[in-house]
Specification:
The chain has 3 helices and 15 strands. It is mainly beta and 239 residues long.
Amino acid sequence: MPPPDPTPTFSLVGQMLRAPEEIARVLNSLVMRGEPIISDLGGGKLPFRSRLRFVDPARAYIIVELSPDDAANKALLARPRATFHAEPGGWRVEFAAANPTPTSPNEGAAGIRLRFPEIVAGHRRRADERAPAPQRQALHCVIDAAGVMPFDGTMENVSKGGIGFLQYDPAISLEPGTVLKGCRIENPSGESIVVDMEVRYSQLMDLEDGKQVQSSGCRFLNLSPEETARIEQLFGLKP
């Protein structure tokens, strides 16, 4: 069996990989490159910094190295699942994995075993990816209003291609592939629209005032022409 290719030949830009063989190929490239991976625990206050050590050929589990920070190791092991990201070669890879447990003695150096991820998301900032947008007021959004635990945030930088950016409490973590149901976007005059969105990727951001927020790139789902026009009107997009 040939060794894993450290340089994937397919583009990850804007993709959500769900096929196990494609996910394994991306993860193995991170192993071969020795790329650092990070999980922002505690709203970014306790980052778990590590490397992906092993990807099970049967695609049942992965193993990550222990972090030098013992508190971060304990925090990760106390969670049912965690989201990790790496940034090799200018592109960002994000995946979530569940059931973190300490490795057994017969698995080599101490590490943490997790279930094989179901989704890998890829994103790259490119000059031609999105047209420059004029500064516009961010609109209030009740996120996942039709879900179990809705929460407040803002929606901004919406493109005509159906992509927008949510900003919300850094203590909340949204995994790639999460579908947010019935999100209600409101402008100051009281006009609103209710839409479903799919999370493409998330990252912590520092604002100019020093505060930190979680920012998620999201894709609007199943918009009708009327809803598309309504969103463009709310955000002041040119026809």
